[in-house]
Design brief:
The protein has 214 residues and is mainly alpha-helical. 64% of the residues lie in helices and 6% in strands.
């Protein structure tokens, strides 16, 4: 069902479904299971009163969802239609950022969903960066830091994001936050990846932390 919804704009061939769902099963048994599954889906829709239809289309299936709202599609459409960032549209853009409550089908380990998950996540990331930069440029530093903290949850090893966040703390004059966040980032890189921050980031931190000693 999830895959048919993902491919809702086009028919999906039966052999594609077999290869995706039951790649190691005997073909005859797999086809029988496909027909049984499709039948059960149709009965489930009817029982629940959902206006969903799975129709045969050539050698495959296509799903019709009626007026059902697909959250991922709705979010992407709103993002594409959003006006340019300004003081008057800032709240709208902040709402768009918060509408993204997690990755596409994150609770399911579907290999076929990885491409869509990464595509939507990238759209969110690019929007978040633009929003954070706007806030920083307009000296709303705490709000900008909040956006970068949200980015960090999805991209914990993104050095650009963490470095930018540390620089914002520095602009706020929050020495404790700079030190704490940098040390946490260093420890995370070492523990998870066995690496260290780039030389450029380390040099910036050393210069900043020692600036009062000059």
């Amino acid at each position: 069902f999830a895959y048919l919804v993902y491919r809702r704009q086009q028919p999906v061939r039966k052999d594609v479904l077999l290869e995706m769902l039951w790649p190691y099963m005997d073909t005859k048994k797999a086809f029988s299971l496909l027909y049984t599954t499709t039948y059960q889906l149709r009965k489930a829709f009817e029982s629940a009163g959902y206006p969903f239809l799975i129709k045969s289309s050539g050698d495959g299936y296509v799903i019709h969802l009626g007026n059902a709202v697909i959250e991922a599609e709705e979010w992407e459409n709103r993002l594409a239609a959003a006006p340019e960032l300004s003081d008057s549209t800032l709240s709208l853009h902040m709402n768009l950022l918060d509408m993204y409550r997690g990755d596409y089908l994150a609770e399911h380990d579907y290999p076929w969903a990885e491409i869509e998950k990464n595509r939507l996540r990238t759209l969110w990331y690019q929007h978040a960066l633009r929003l954070a930069q706007y806030l920083r440029n307009h000296r709303r530093l705490l709000d900008a830091a909040g956006v970068h903290l949200k980015i960090q949850k999805l991209y914990p090893f993104n050095e650009y994001n963490d470095w930018t966040l540390i620089q914002i703390y520095a602009e706020l004059g929050d020495r404790a936050a700079v030190e704490q966040h940098y040390r946490q980032f260093v420890a995370m890189l070492k523990e998870s990846l066995g690496t260290t921050p780039t030389g450029e980031m380390q040099k910036w931190y050393e210069q900043w932390i020692n600036r009062d000693a000059r």
